[in-house]
Amino acid sequence: MTTSTSLRASGSVTMGGDQLGAAIHCPVLTTAMPCSTLHHPCSTSQGPRLYSKRDHCNKTVEIYEDVSSPPVTPENFGRPLTCTYRFRAFRGSPKDWILRIRFKKFKVGTLINGTTCHKGYMQIVDGNAKTDVSNRKEPGLFCGEIEQPQTFISETNFVKIVFHADNFTDQTYFSFDSRAEQQFEVYLRYGQHPELYPNRRGEVVAGSYCERVFRDCRLQTCYVQSAAYPGVYPRNLHCRYHLNTRLPYIKLYIENEEFNIDGQRCENIMTCPMRPITSGSENCPYDYIRIYDGKDESASVIGTFCGMGKFPYSIIGTSQDLFVEFVSSPAGPLLNTGFHFNVGNWPGHVEAPGSKIGNCDWLLTAESLKRSGDTEGIFLSVAHWYPPHTSCTYLMQGFPGQVVRLYFPSFRINRIESPIVPWTGDCGESLTLYDAARPDDAKIIKTFCDTFSRPMEKHDFVSTGNAMFVRFESKTGSYSGSSLYYWAHYDFFNNTRFGEPVSGTACDEVIASWKQRAGRLRSPLNTLVYKQAPPGEDVHCLYRFVTDKRIYARVIVTILSVNFKEHPYTPVSCQNCYEDRADKLIIWEPFPTGRAANLSLGMTTTPLPLHLAVQRSIGSCLCAKHANTVTRSRPYRVVSSGESLNLQLIVDNAHAAASYFKNPSPLFEARYEFVHGPLCGPAVLAAASDGEIVYPHLEALGYTEPPKRIQCIWDLEIEEKRDIWLHFDSIKFASRHCDDGNIQIYLPGRVEPYLSVCGENVSLARELPILSAGELGFESLDDPLVMEKEKTRSIRIVFIGSASPARAAFKIAWTGLYHLPKNSDGTLMTSRLTDSGSYAPDGHNCDFICPGEEALCIPARLICNGVVNCPNVTSGERRYWTAEEKRAREAYSEDSLRRLGYLDALTGELGKLHDEAPELCTGAHMAGSGDWMAPVLGAALAIAISVCALGAAWRLCCRKRSPDEESLDY
């Protein structure tokens, strides 16, 4: 029914004679609102005024005027009644005035099914054609009954109220008053300092009543409110709010405000209970707000809400935009006061350096992290809303050979505070870490649940491969982010090994000769090992170099640099590298060989552990003080005597993480090489009175393929107080070039070779000087790195062949020579030779005196053995023998030969015979001619061996010799 029709139907209704003017309260007016402008009933320009009966209906209402429904009279009882009230315009007043209309009593019509007003209604028209906003086209209807006064606060300075009753009786009544206020006086609507934020309530879309746009919202700069807030909102609304912030995640929340959308929907005063806040379209059929995760209605719906009470949670979007839709039914009670939301953004947003797949699945790769220029990547717990049964995943994928570390600087586990769907069981939300590139229950590292887990902050979770998969799951969903709040950091570490990793250890490796003949080595590339040692334990990394004992292999480890840090806050010394608590590198042989090892450790197959090596100071130890001593230009070289060698890095736990975690500089650098081999034969030759080195080792020719390059290292151990005479029985090189074959002889403690023989200077091998006991002593050994307490003197012989090494061949023989006793002045100690009739130093080893003036002698078993063991040496510095010395020497020699059975066959001068002289050996053979079986059997065995070795030696003996080939046979 229209207003005009209602007026015609009412006819000339008589009003009661009550004087409304007497009830008007006249406050003191401000200068901004003069009485003459507002036409206040107290205005002195108009004087006192009495209101006639017709003033109860269809009138222009003055500000501060009380208005009530017309009295029931016989003329209007039971008849239709329509009353219209317009508030007098603010002539010349600014546009920031609004009207506050208080309904003290209200009972008009009946609300049917929550959507229809039966037998009466009230309309509130806010604005007109001249105002910026207006709902005059579809103002909606109020009906029902109120118990307490309700207030409507207009959006404009023009309001019209229309009351209509189909059957006017004493059960239809209303009463209201009004007043005008400026915007800054309505604090709940405009907030503090509205002049600073003219668009705090958004920019109104032209032609609409309540569609608003909010841009660049920050805390307290955007108020999203229902129309007429904080008063009763109009009916038949469809308000649209476009919300935007500069940064994600946009957050919609209530601070100390009540939420009242359709909280009460009354058909009568007795059936008007409060409805708690609920969600879902099925629970909010009349008035509701609906929130979308995006710019408009096409975005995902976060939720639909209605009810009355404290809005229990914030709503956080996934981007910078939210769209809010507010709908009120065409008809409803005069009760609900709407909503007021603030807009901001969740401050914890961090963009992960990876690619997003879908809504919340991430691929975080080492490549993308490298491009970002950061050393660590970051991802956060889900901070925005998500629906029930959400699964968010993070795949951290490294380069081949890398491992992934994940740790949580901050981790909190809360109860699920804002679920979309309630959950009463355990683990409504969970976070699971997998040691794999995909979910695999067999490879779960850890699972966190909201109901029973404790957070683990600053704990390193490390994968075994180059991928780690993390999955967050929620059965409940959430309006405002996960109950598992975490700040996750991840990074990648190069876990490449130089050998075979040892299971159950952080950084131990085995480097085997059958895997790789040579390579480089350094401290662990994965610096996580420096912060993962158990509390109170130092970091230990053991590198074991192993090969097969049967192939006579050796290991060379060359330390190129040592870069241990000094620690100013915890100073440690490195005076005793073994004993001091300093970062160090220890090298030792777990299976020592040779005379010294046999004497001190005994022959055993049990590896020598580090603590025994430290106790006995066997091996080498490097620490910070050697940083300048060991460099690439002056490397430190260790050659094993056997088939294995240990190198162990030890870092003090007190500062390992602070000094070396994520430190790109290596603590040490080294290279290794497995040398020697089957063609070289035994590597360590124990001390003996004589022996020989034969290359190639004939036993290996039948089953080994000659390598393209070979390096043989022989250690010839030396007995105390004995000279050594080295001599080549035969020698042949593949060519005249020294790069193709080279024999070097090193004396104990010397860095430079004593002698180097190759195809160019093969003649140097014809005459080799005797190496005296003084030259072979340890007096010249000045190596601070070597800590061995029990050393064995040894001569090192090295052969390097690079071109057809099997084509080279040589035989090096040696003899240990003794000295006749001498006085301190160098003269012969004749008394020792004549007093007892025989000199027997060191167990009868000086049986035959060699020719020359050096007074050298050999044991009896080297006489006439087919090898010349006595050099004829005459030193230019040796003085002439005195007559007494000559007599003593001749007497000793004669007595020794007589005792050995050689004297009777000799005819020449004894002092000029060497040990293989025909005069000496012929007589000895004749004396022993009765024992003929041994020589015959020996000859037969030699023939058999020669036949068997003929095929194997064919390649060496019958190969065509190149023009560059040089040989020396004698």
UniProtKB/TrEMBL annotation:
Keyword Nuclease present in the record's keywords: the answer is: no
Record carries keyword Cell membrane: no
SMART domains per the UniProt record, alphabetical: CUB
Q: What positions does the domain CUB occupy?
A: 57-181, 210-346, 360-489, 680-817
Keywords, ordered alphabetically: Disulfide bond, Membrane, Transmembrane, Transmembrane helix
List the transmembrane segments.
932-954
Q: What is this protein called?
A: CUB domain-containing protein
The source's domain of life comes to Eukaryota
InterPro entries recorded: CUB_dom (IPR000859), Non-NMDA_GluR_Accessory (IPR053207), Sperma_CUB_dom_sf (IPR035914)
GO cellular component, as recorded: plasma membrane
Annotated signal sequence is none
> Which Pfam family, any one of them, does this sequence belong to?
CUB
